[in-house]
Design goal:
Elements: H1 2-28, H2 37-41, E1 43-46, E2 52-58, E3 63-73, E4 76-87, E5 90-103, E6 109-125, E7 128-133, E8 143-146
Antiparallel strand pairs: 1-2, 1-8, 2-3, 3-4, 4-5, 5-6, 6-7, 7-8
Length: about 150
């Protein structure tokens, strides 16, 4: 049995290093293992400061509705709405609508559209949602955390 130890232990180490290397490469490239990619996007996401919230709802197998809010000032907020399509491990949009909602002194909401042809995408890396807004770069590298209560 002792003569096999010199072959078995290196082989076990080799397997362990190989598995760690494979998993390490997967994590380094941002790959997410297991589960349905479409289910990972669905839910409510928040940035660290809770300034921007992203609500993603799965409409069909490859379609998502995204609703984003961000408070600009006490009496103003930005709202983005878009319909996204799944492409590989990313959801993309070409019809993003941005509006500014302001409130008058009586509390009435006044909505004004800023644009209706926004483009961009959402991806998930290391469990965080990344928003790539091609019109204004609103998220500027922010990573959004999924709300634990809605998982």
């Amino acid at each position: 049995m002792r003569q096999y130890k010199k072959y078995i232990y290196p082989f076990i180490r080799f397997l362990g290093v190989g598995i760690c290397l494979i998993l390490g490469i997967g994590f380094m490239c941002g790959c997410e293992f297991g589960g349905d990619i479409t289910e990972r996007f669905s839910g409510q996401w928040y940035d660290e400061k809770n300034d921007i919230s992203v609500d993603i709802t799965k409409e069909s197998e490859d379609t998502f509705l995204v609703f984003i809010t961000s408070e600009k000032e006490e009496d103003e907020m930005y709202i983005w709405e878009m319909e996204c399509r799944l492409q590989d491990k990313t959801i993309t949009y070409k019809n993003g609508k941005k509006s500014v909602v302001s409130y008058d002194s009586y509390g009435n909401a006044l909505e004004e559209a800023e644009y209706e042809s926004g483009t961009g995408s959402f991806s998930i890396r290391f469990g965080k949602l990344i928003w790539n807004d091609e019109v204004e770069d609103v998220a500027k590298g922010l990573r959004f955390q999924k709300s634990e209560t809605l998982k």
